[in-house]
Amino acid sequence: MTDFTLNAQARTDLGKGASRRLRHSASIPAVVYGGDKEAQSLTIVAKEIAKLFENEAAFSHVLELNVDGAKQNVVVKALQRHPAKGFIMHADFVRVVAGQKLTAKVPVHFINEEAPVKKGGEISHVESEIEVSCEAKDLPEFIEVDLANAEIGTIIHLSDLKAPKGVEFVALAHGDDKAVANVHAPRVAAEAAEGAAE
User: Fold this and answer.
1) 69: which of 6, 41, 136, 177 is 20 to 30 A away, CA to CA?
2) How far is CA 144 from each of CA 1, 3, 177, rounded to the nearest angstrom?
3) How far is Cα of residue 184 from the mean position of the Cα atoms in its chain?
């Protein structure tokens, strides 16, 4: 069982300058909000949070946030990363309240990708994560997309996926049936055929 625990300290020194100083001291600013408590500004050791999020499952798991010894269950709402270097610069967490629905982004796992490739198709992954709404106990680690029966020209939409029990796709609930992946003919072959026609 992976340990999804993160230690943090309450932070009173706020503002851009304070955030910059924090990052220089190998920590990052973070915030936790939601539930019936006030939003709280935090400090987290950069190395600790980077290690936690090396595990993809941490993005779609209820985490135990230990703030100065007081534990609370949270999910990650957003991570702000450095545009060039990719390291985490800021984190937003939302408190988990039993019986209350939460929204979280869950990674997409594509399986049986070799099937359409054997038929000569190429696969484009349009979405790498899907926003879901559910209770914390129903939060899936990932959403599986099976490409075993995908033919060339197939577009897989959110409505083609089976949501786990108790889980709702947020975009679909708002009437947006997003494409998640598509299988298309290789561009090289298409260009060669066009060239021959000319």
Assistant:
1) 136
2) 21, 23, 17
3) 26
